[in-house]
Design brief:
single chain; alpha/beta; Fructose Permease; 7-stranded mixed sheet; two-stranded antiparallel ribbon; 9 strands; 23% strand; cytoplasm; PTS_IIB_sorbose-sp_sf
C-alpha cells in the first residue's frame, strides 16, 4: 500500500478531497506536503479541521515527507498525498520518491497563468515542472472528481503557449 494516490489541488483539503476522493480511495491518511504551510500554525489548524473524521493527517515539508516515504513509514497505510503545485512533486522526485500517476485537480487562475481547462491554470514554472515530472516517467492525469472521465494531462499541456 503506502501512497495510493497523488493529487495536485491548490485548495488542499476541501469538500472534493475530504469527501469524494478520500472516500473513493478509502484512504486512511491524507498527507499534505508543502514547505510554506509547515511554517503556519493557522493553516495547519485549518487543515486539521477540514480532514474527514477517522482519517489521519500528516502535514510535512518535502524533505521530511520524502524521508518518511523512503523509510517505509506509511507502507501499512493507504496514503492520499496532496500538494498545491507540481514543483513540490518535482522536489520529492529529486529526493528519490517514485510516483506512478499524478492527478491534477484545481490550479487557480493567476496574473501569469494560462487557462487550460475549467479548473486548471498553469504558469511557466508549472509548465516546466510538469515536463520534469513527465520526463521522470510519471503519468499525469486530469480529473476533478472521481466520477469525471480521466483525461491525459500531457495532451492538455500541449495547448500551453510558452
Amino acid at each position: 500500500m503506502g501512497i495510493i494516490a497523488v493529487r495536485i489541488d491548490e485548495r488542499l483539503i476541501h469538500g472534493q478531497v475530504a469527501n469524494l476522493w478520500t472516500t473513493k480511495l478509502q484512504a486512511s491518511r491524507i498527507m499534505v506536503v508543502d514547505n510554506e504551510i509547515i511554517k503556519s500554525d493557522i493553516q495547519k489548524t485549518a487543515l486539521k479541521l477540514a480532514k474527514p473524521a477517522g482519517v489521519n493527517l500528516s502535514i510535512l515539508g518535502t524533505k521530511k515527507s520524502s524521508a518518511n516515504i523512503l523509510a517505509g513509514k506509511y507502507d501499512s497505510q493507504k496514503v492520499f498525498l496532496v500538494v498545491k503545485r507540481p514543483e513540490t512533486l518535482v522536489e520529492m522526485i529529486k529526493n528519490g520518491v517514485k510516483f506512478d500517476t499524478i492527478n491534477v485537480g484545481n490550479m487557480s487562475q493567476k496574473d501569469d497563468s494560462q487557462h487550460l481547462t475549467q479548473s486548471i491554470n498553469v504558469t511557466d514554472a508549472d509548465y516546466d515542472a510538469f515536463h520534469e515530472i513527465l520526463d521522470a516517467g510519471v503519468k499525469i492525469t486530469a480529473q476533478m472528481v472521481p466520477s469525471d472521465p480521466i483525461k491525459d494531462f500531457a495532451s492538455i499541456l500541449k495547448d500551453y503557449k510558452k
